[in-house]
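Entry type: protein chain
Record version: 2
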Amino acid sequence: MDALAGVRAAVSLAASHGVVSTDPVVLKDGSNVIVHLRPAPVVARIAARTALVRPAVADHFARDLSVSAFLASRGVPVVTPSEELPPGPHTRDGFVFTFSTYVPHDPTAELTRPEVLKLLPDLHAELRLYDGLLPSRGPVDDVDNTLIYLDGLGVPDLEQFRSRRAELLSRWDAHYNDVQPLHGDSHYGNLLMTPSGPVWNDFEDTWRGPIGWDLACLAGARGKEAAQRAVDVYGGGAASSDVEFHLEVRILFGTLWGLLMENS
């Protein structure tokens, strides 16, 4: 993906709504391109590698806006959809993007895994009230789509990942417990550290799944002890065996995303 072309498309569309950016700054260039449309208090999220493996990437982006708006209405500290212009999702020049409110934060400051785990119960309590349509397979869909994409590129040695996917899926139903709307990618990097405190960000991976998945995002290591530690810090809510299983799913998910980053 040409990140600069995506930035130009977002700047152009923002200008058509009267929001002029004379000094756009790329904050992150990874699975998506995140750009602050300075001097406007607007951040554009531009689908990059996510668009390669998510046929309905606009639905993911719409979900992020919907969940964020809902949580903000409940008083949860989140990055909100922009009020400076229609937040989207928009499509221009082949790029899909949304606009959110810029939140001043310290990009070098991060909470620890235990600190985020202690914040998760309150977020989950509010997410349980969200009644919007959500997917029910979450990371499994990404695993499947990423395998298809990598196979199309001719990436070798994918059979080991297909076998691992099949083995995990055979146990999926047994660990599909304590189901509710999740953050979906609840690691410490998705909490922005602002002068007024931590602010939740990035709900494009929200899905209806087991609490164990969100805890697995913060377990930090494989094994029963790490899973139990995550449950204990969180305060219950899930069986450690479920967290341990979903950590294994997340490792496969992350490994394939790593291959995607290397090959795109």
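Comment: The mean pLDDT is 95.
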